[in-house]
Amino acid sequence: MRHVIALDVGGTGMKAALAGPGGELLHQARRATGRERGPEAVVAGILDFAAELRAYGADRFGEPAGAAGVAVPGIVDAERGVAVYAANLGWRDVPLRTLLGERLGSIPVALGHDVRTGGLAEGRIGAGQGADRFLFVPLGTGIAGAIGIDGRVEAGAHGFAGEIGHIVVRPGGTPCPCGQRGCLERFASASAVSQAWAEACGDPGADAADCAKAVESGDARALAVWRDAVDALADGLVTALTLLDPRVLIIGGGLAEAGETLFSPLRDAVRRRVTFQKLPEIVPAALGDTAGCLGAGLMAWDLLDTAAATATAATAPPASPAATAATPPEVTT
Question: Fewest beta carbons within 10 Å, which of 203, 222, 298, 333?
Fold first, then answer.
């Protein structure tokens, strides 16, 4: 059975799968990233994991994987297949596409940014399915975005498209590691809400999920923290939808697990802020933590589809001279 390898590399764990032609996950596996052992060990672990998946697929399905897709965090040069930088993994300029291709028997390999890869899956087979324009925004440790256009995700001229978390929503506000002050992710990410709630309730171990529960119980301190986060998020999202005009706005990540505790006030806050803009449908992500793997699989199948189309075009017989000759203009006297 034809299949591809899909890998989603995170800061603490790796999720992997063998994906069938319809994007279905035929086999899934997980293991620790092992970042505490250093970046070289992380890369070695990725290569070993991929090789094990290839061997499993060949044994289980009677043939090796035809391609591989890999999603990684940080700065990614997808065109060159290089993982440029990831602070949480400690690597710089890792030629992952080349390394994986060599380890996996020279099969084609696609490398993508983790959020854009997850957005690709949400757009094609998840919450954005059928929408010609979507914006996927996961609210996790930070905030990023994937800009979906006609079934693909826009990376931008330099690979930085979609960095909505660094829209300044509170000028002069909390410093951000990016060098700016008042960035969206300093106020509306799951980690920002966790920090704000821990300070408000006096419990250093409290997190965003605890804050959401306190909001549901009517705690005034939690309501204030939640309102500040929702207002900041709405400000950032309205800036994004003004620029991008998405048909669907997909919210994912840990904070979205609060369900309507988040979505009800967020929809109201966005609605109050729009003037001439068209209000998009605001929906929760549908694929959960499998989005990265599913997207990596889709990237791999895209490589095979492109290769097949190129091969077909190359072997097509040339058009006959009679068919391609231009019709001479009619001359009248």
Answer: 333
- What's the order of all strands across the beta sheet hosting 13-19? 25-32, 13-19, 4-9, 68-72, 109-113
Count of positions (residues) in the chain: 333
What DSSP string describes 230-248?
Answer: HHHHHHHHHHHHHHH--SE
Domains within the chain, CATH numbers bracketed: 4-116+289-305 (3.30.420.40), 129-286 (3.30.420.40)
Cβ neighbors of 308 (< 8 A, separation 6 or more) are none
CA distance 100 to 70: 9
CB atoms within 10 A of CB 232: 24
For residue 104, CA distances in Å to 111, 157, 300, 304 come to: 14, 30, 13, 15
Contact 192, 229 (CB under 8 A): yes
Tell whether the torsion through CA atoms of 267, 268, 272 and 278 is positive or negative: positive
- Predicted local distance difference test score (pLDDT) of residue 319: 59
Phi first, then psi, for residue 71 (nearest 5°) are: -110, 130
Cα separation of 113 and 43, whole Å?
16
Interval 77-90: pLDDT, tens: 999 999 998 888 88
Q: What pTM did the predictor assign?
A: 0.88
Q: How many CA atoms lie within 13 A of 112 on its CB side?
A: 34
List b or e across 295-316, with b for residues whose CB sees 16 or more CB atoms inside 10 angstroms.
bbbbbbbbbbeeeeeeeeeeee
Q: Which amino acid is at 284?
A: P
